[in-house]
Amino acid sequence: MLAPSAFAANEFRLRAAPASAHLLGDEGRETVTLSYSGSLQGNVLRLKQGEPVRLVVENGLDKDTTVHWHGIRMFNSMDGVPGLTQPPIKPGETFVYEFTPPDAGTFWFHPHANSLEEIGRGLAAALIVEEREPVAVDRDVLWLLQDWRLDQSGELSNRFGSAMDAMMSGRVGNVVTINRAEPKDFAVRAGERIRLRLANACVARMMALRFENHRPVVIALDGQPCEPHEPEDGRIVLAPAMRADIVLDLTGESGKSYAVTDDFYDGLAYTLTSIAYESGAPLRDNPLDAPLRLTPNPLAEPELTHALRQEIVLRGGMMGGGKLKGLGGMPGMNMSGMGKSPSWAINGMSMTGDGMAGMAPAFTLKRGQTCHLTLRNQTAWWHPMHIHGFSMKVLTRNGAPVPHDPWQDTVLMAPADILESAFVADNPGDWMRHCHVIDHSMSGLMTVFRVT
User: Fold this and answer.
1) Which among 22, 11, 209, 49 is positioned nearest to 127, based on CA atoms?
2) What is the pLDDT of residues 36-54, one digit of tens each?
């Protein structure tokens, strides 16, 4: 990596500020939200792999903010965690982020200060780092998936930090959007090949997408190329913070529509959108004959023989003891409206809020050392566990090898899951590990590890 002082910058400017969106359709009233403006093309910031960038972020909000460049491996000082890696950006102030993205792929960015409310009000955007050699497709399409908890007037509910949300599934919204708008039919032409980048930017909603009469092929997870494969049972499962790049060969009939449904929650399936084929002749009669395998990113391969073994155990939540008592914690941490005591713990320790100075590391790694990390979910709830600063090679789930060679920065753990992963500690600093259901992380499901 380049030293921060070495940047000869391609400069971009972003402003976090109030905005409005037609969350209930073009004819509906506008809802007051938060968003980023400036150097964005729609809902996405596009960078190039290996090229230094300088991002000037202005806080146009009335509360502190930061930016976490989710999934980008970078210097610790640029990671965007208030108190841990940088001071918060005060209202009216700016902060300059400088880094060189080493990996191509689909990423996103969001605040890590006041994160429950700011992400819950829509402050998030996609970040695409373009490959030097992309796969051959006819179109490259982004779906930034968000949900919103609206009241009967169509405004965002101001009830953030509910203790019930914290102890259960988190703040799940009642309206789902694609690219900050009510989903409309997705117009396609028969015979096309599309690269569809899916990014779940919800606070808590898990999603499992099915593409009626189509066979999506997964080519990357969390920005990292994997062995191209059709997903198990045809479902693309995305928890908050997770991304998947898929290739769709559009082999349906001209003039017909096919549903894209989300059926993650039992009994609550709904149609997210429809793939609507235009009338007329297909673009081509047979699927495009071109390879789907992406060029791997420069990730260090773990050396498992002499790896340092560490373990993270998740406990707490409703049906798991409720509010935790008698556990360790950081003095003076507040729950940001979530009550006086934490709801969750990692290895018996509860760290709450968005990130604070003085967090003791759960474990310490020497630079260059391989860490074999086991995660145990001893709760009754699902948790997407995110690691800052690294991508992990996912090895096994409940004792069975995980296929298709995935590397991920966010892994979804079902109740009672045991997951083994590994990574090389090649990036020094204090790094966060937390659940990306934001209510969970702010109420205790967060820890820090150190690389020296």
Assistant:
1) 49
2) 999 898 889 999 999 999 9
For the record, the structure tokens of 404 come out as 């298709």
CA distance 324 to 350: 9
Q: In angstroms, rounded to a whole number, what is the distance separating the alpha carbons of residues 74 and 86?
A: 14
Assigned token pair, 172: 């799940």
Interstrand relation of 400-401 and 429-435 (parallel, antiparallel or unpaired): unpaired
Residue (of 119, 111, 117, 12) closest to 65 by Cα position: 111
Cβ-proximal residues to 139 (8 Å cutoff; 6+ apart), any chain: 192, 194, 195
Rg for the chain (alpha carbons), in Å?
Answer: 21
Q: How far apart are CA 166 and CA 160, in angstroms?
A: 10
User: By C-alpha distance, which of 158, 26, 16, 180 is closest to 93?
Assistant: 16
One-letter amino acid for residue 294 of the chain: L
pLDDT, tens only, 290-348 = 999 999 999 999 999 999 999 999 999 886 554 444 344 443 333 333 345 789 999 99
Q: List the structure tokens of 83.
A: 């108190």
Beta strand spans in 179-297 (E) = 186-188, 193-200, 207-211, 217-221, 224-229, 236-238, 243-249, 257-262, 270-277
Token pair in block for residue 180: 């900050």
Element (H, E) at 120: helix 115-120
Largest CA distance in the chain: 68
